[in-house]
Design brief:
about 500 residues; alpha+beta; Beta-Lactamase; Helix Hairpins; Heat Shock Protein 90; four-stranded antiparallel sheet; 11 strands; about 55% helix; rod-shaped; HATPase_dom; phosphorelay sensor kinase activity; cell membrane; EC 2.7.13.3; kinase
Length: about 500
């Protein structure tokens, strides 16, 4: 529910609920406060009972004045009627030709008489207006004289009860409005303020460098959207810091590994130079041997620096890929032919296997794909221990991607080392020597290049039997559905 809807509903509730509660409380107050007047409990209810009797009796007196006015000069009738009216807090005054012929004893005869007989009086006195409800009836006596009937109903009973009831009713109204609006305001404000407090606490923790506290408001309104955006920001910031720390750790590891790997050839070059300087290489064959060692160590350093430079650009995503559509079957077949003619493959059988017949069109960078295959084969040659070494390039055609399998029959890789062979500077042998000419970056570069082209790489190995390196390359849409070529991977 949105905040706008929630506020609208709260405004409606602030209007509707107090009205309903006030009506309920008013009814309850009336029933409790006027229980005697309302006839609650014993059923006799003097107020309403007297009110009904009062109405009936007054109506009877008025009827008599109109139909049989001469009875109003009968003292016995007037006395009986007055006794009944007094029981109902009502007094009777009869006038004939502007003279008072009868006045109830319970009325203030002097004051009322003066008000009734003074022709200059414009109205009843203040006390009369506040105390009595007056009904009048004009009639004519049997002898033709003018008559007037006044019925004074005492309102003190009603006023005394109402003077206590209405203030309580007003206080009840104020209480209902205050409690209802206060409670609704509290609930609405808490629903808005609490998540804001949670966001503030999270912001303070982030300011202090703590990114571990999750922000989960569990709301679907605007504040929930802000909380979700804040949580996404926290996650990205946390990932960014973690990645930065990883980069820093990698940088330290890179410097340490470079220092270690460069130290070996430099030490060899230094030893050869000292040997020549000290006269140890006192014959031409010895000097030629020392110079060959220096050249070899220099080549190793140059290759190591090239691989470090290439890996650094791949790791920082600064090496562009020239992706194009390639017939992978023809490409691997040509690679196999080139490797057979390579002097480094002397004595090594290089075979290509592909069960299909047609082309396999993939998206790849030709130059970097060759680097992938060369690094895998170089790694196989460095750890080859068979008298008849074999390397097989096999192409497996899939629905959305093609898989290349490069398998050797070398010494294999131990199971505990297999998950780490694509880590940089990782070597399966315990000692970090460079006798094999390995920088520890060959397969790490393979992983970076393959993943940079949208593929994935993995390895399978059996100790003593050989190792198989697999990598995939995405196929073009033309290869998938036969009508479009996509070169923009």
């Amino acid at each position: 529910m949105s905040i706008k809807t929630r506020l609208l509903l709260s405004y409606i509730a602030m209007t509707f609920i107090p009205v309903v509660l006030f009506a309920f409380i008013a009814v309850m107050l009336a029933s409790v406060f006027f229980k005697d007047m309302a006839g609650v409990g014993d059923g006799r209810g003097p107020f309403w009972k007297a009110s009904n009797e009062h109405s009936e009796l007054i109506a009877g007196v008025k009827f008599t004045a109109r139909t049989d006015p001469d009875r109003l000069v009968d003292s016995g009738f007037l006395k009986r009627t007055d006794e009944q009216l007094q029981l109902l807090q009502t007094g009777l005054v009869v006038m004939r030709n502007n003279g008072i012929t009868f006045i109830s004893p319970n009325l203030d005869a002097a004051d009322l008489g003066r008000q009734l007989q003074d022709p200059q009086t414009s109205g009843w006195g203040k006390n009369t207006r506040e105390r009595y409800s007056v009904s009048t009836v004009d009639f004519t006596f049997g002898d033709g004289s003018a008559g007037k009937l006044f019925l004074f109903s005492d309102m003190n009973l009603f006023y005394s009860e109402a003077s206590r009831f209405f203030p309580l009713l007003f206080l009840s109204l104020l209480l209902v409005i205050g409690l209802t609006n206060g409670l609704l305001t509290l609930l609405v404000s808490r629903s808005l303020i609490q998540p804001l407090y949670a966001l503030r606490r999270a912001a303070e923790q982030i300011k202090e460098g703590d990114l571990s506290q999750k922000v989960n408001l569990k709301r679907k309104d605007e504040i929930g959207e802000v909380g979700a955006a804040f949580e996404e920001m926290r996650i990205r910031l946390n990932d960014s810091i973690r990645l930065q720390l990883q980069y820093e750790e990698n940088r330290k590891d890179l410097i340490s590994s470079i220092s270690h790997d460069l130290k070996t050839p430099i030490a060899g070059i230094k030893a050869c130079v000292e040997g020549i300087r000290d006269g140890i290489a006192d014959t031409e064959p010895k000097r030629e041997k020392y110079m060959s060692m220096i050249a070899k160590k220099t080549d190793d350093m140059d290759r190591l620096i090239d691989e470090l430079f290439l890996f650094s650009k791949l790791d920082l995503k600064r090496l562009p890929f020239n992706l194009e559509a390639i017939d992978l079957a023809a490409y691997l077949r040509d690679c196999a032919e080139e490797f057979r003619a390579d002097p480094r493959m002397n004595g090594t059988t290089v075979a290509f296997a592909y069960a299909g017949e047609g082309p396999v069109i993939v998206i790849a960078d030709r130059e970097k794909l060759r680097r992938v295959i060369m690094n895998i084969i170089d790694n196989s040659l460095k750890y080859m221990n068979k008298t008849k070494p074999e390397i097989i390039l096999e192409l497996l055609d899939g629905e959305g991607a093609a898989t290349v399998k490069i398998e050797d029959n070398g010494e294999g890789i131990m199971e505990e080392a297999l998950p780490h062979i694509f880590d940089r500077f990782y070597r399966a042998e315990p000692s970090r020597n460079t006798d094999t000419g390995s920088s520890g970056l060959g397969l790490a570069i393979v992983k970076q290049i393959v993943e940079g082209q949208g593929g994935k790489v993995w390895a399978e190995s059996r100790t003593g039997e050989g190792t198989a390196i697999y990598f995939t390359l995405p196929k073009t849409r033309q290869a998938v559905n036969g009508h479009e070529t996509d070169l923009n991977h």
